[in-house]
Design goal:
Length: about 450
């Protein structure tokens, strides 16, 4: 999404005379249009709901191979010819996958958009499913995935939510493992094309000087056949968080022999409902605890005790947690310090000055994300895809300003880490076993990187 927004920012930087339009595609799904008359380029985003959520656990990584294949162009053109065609049209086409969507992003001058969308249609009808291209992209995916094992933060981030929520589909991000990527075949790509790009799951958006009806005709011609389809939102299954709260705290150690550094991650399963006033209040509370370098975690663990270069808290739809890291000689004290802060949240006192600074920080971030005329449309797209209430965004600043210190303090004291959770650490087991046992942990599950499925 950040990449997409940067494209929009570049293409619409000088735009004015903004007019928003809400139309419907052939399948009756929404087409969000922002008509910006002075923009020199047109951006079209075609979004299919589903994404890597639809890929079985034992085939995760399939999407990275498929993305690589599709971005080489259609099979009835040589790859070099495809690159030249885009160059001559001064255009760009990007096909990518995320947890909940498959996206086609097209950028081109308005007069070239139709020919560029024809290229998109050719890719969808005639993907380059030849053995040479497939093996090349699969090799690249395997190389990238193997390299990830050297990045401890990447490994622990990949593993944590999947482990905590037992590989629920909502945690599958398409990354996969060397084993799952190795198992992917050309036939797997062919079978999953119709799942990733299901016309009854697609909606779209466009930004630029062209009017909505012209854009609608071009998109309809690109993604639909004569067969009638009606839009249906994808039936994502939400995580039943209560099922995954352990009876007692669980500890997992991922061994990386010889490591001089250590990753430390606490995760507490808890349900938070995004895009609600309650969530915004929790977001404010989370910033108090560890949202930036001015917050409690960083101030105590980094500035006062010098145990780490960074310590932050994380708020998500299904959990709250803390991430930090430390060297071998400090990791024991770092874990002790993090535990001390977590257990002290119930008694910690917070002041109005910190609240005002946190509100200012969140207000600034919100305004920065609403500088472009198209930002509001992007917000509508996100709300539609996630079935969120748009009023959350419309009332964001007024709700933020109205929040009181007593309410935020209550959320911190009663809302975070009140039930057992998970401590997941990564580093040399010789160091971490001693540090964990010194902090009172006895039942420790030991894994190697090769054990992470």
């Amino acid at each position: 999404m950040k990449k997409l927004l940067s494209i929009i920012a570049l293409s619409l930087l000088a735009s004015s005379a903004v007019q928003a339009e809400k139309l419907k595609l052939k399948n009756e799904a929404p087409l969000f249009v922002s008509v910006e008359s002075t923009s020199p380029r047109q951006l079209v985003v075609i979004n299919y709901m589903g994404g890597t959520y639809t890929v079985p656990r034992d085939k995760q990584g399939l999407s990275s191979i498929l993305s690589g294949v599709l971005n080489t162009g259609p099979s009835n053109m040589k790859e070099e010819e495809y690159k030249i065609a885009k160059f001559l049209d001064t255009s760009d086409i990007g096909i990518s996958f995320s947890k909940k969507s498959s996206s086609i992003v097209v950028e081109a001058p308005p007069e070239k958009l139709e020919s560029v969308l024809k290229l998109v249609k050719e890719i969808m009808l005639n993907p380059r499913f030849d053995k040479k291209t497939f093996e090349e992209k699969k090799r690249r995916s395997l190389t990238n995935r193997a390299a990830m094992d050297d990045d401890m933060q990447a490994v622990i981030s990949y593993f944590a939510s999947k482990y905590v929520f037992d590989y629920h589909p909502a945690t599958l991000d398409g990354t996969g493992t060397v084993k799952t990527i190795s198992s992917v075949t050309i036939d797997d790509l062919k079978k999953h094309m119709s799942v990733f790009f299901d016309p009854k799951r697609v909606f779209a958006a466009s930004f630029g000087p062209m009017n909505g009806n012209d854009i609608k005709k071009l998109i309809d011609k690109t993604i639909f056949t004569d067969k009638a389809v009606k839009f249906e939102k994808f039936p994502y299954e939400d995580i039943d968080v209560k099922k995954y709260i352990p009876k007692s705290n669980k500890v997992v150690l991922i061994n990386k022999p010889g490591s001089k550094d250590n990753q430390v991650l606490y995760i507490y399963p808890q349900k938070f409902q995004p895009a609600t006033k309650s969530y915004l209040q929790y977001k404010l509370a989370n910033y108090f605890v560890g949202g930036n370098s001015e917050a409690l975690l960083f101030r105590i663990l980094r500035e006062e005790r010098g145990l780490t270069y960074g310590a932050y808290s994380m708020l998500g739809r299904n959990s709250w947690g803390i991430w930090t890291f430390g060297s071998n000689d400090k990791v024991g004290k770092l874990i002790a310090g993090a535990n001390e802060i977590i257990s002290g949240l119930k008694k910690q006192n917070y002041n109005q000055k910190d609240l005002d600074l946190t509100k200012l920080d969140l207000t600034t971030k919100y305004k920065e994300n609403h500088e472009l005329p198209s930002d509001t449309v992007m917000e509508e797209i996100g709300a539609f895809a996630s079935s969120e209430d748009l009023n959350y965004y419309k009332n964001y600043l007024s709700n933020l300003e109205s929040m009181k210190l007593s309410d935020v303090t209550k959320d911190i004291r009663s809302g975070f880490a009140q039930k057992p959770g998970y401590l997941i650490v990564m580093g040399d087991k010789k160091v971490l076993m001693k540090a964990l046992k010194k902090n009172g942990y006895k039942d420790i599950k030991l894994l190697s990187i090769s054990d992470i499925k």
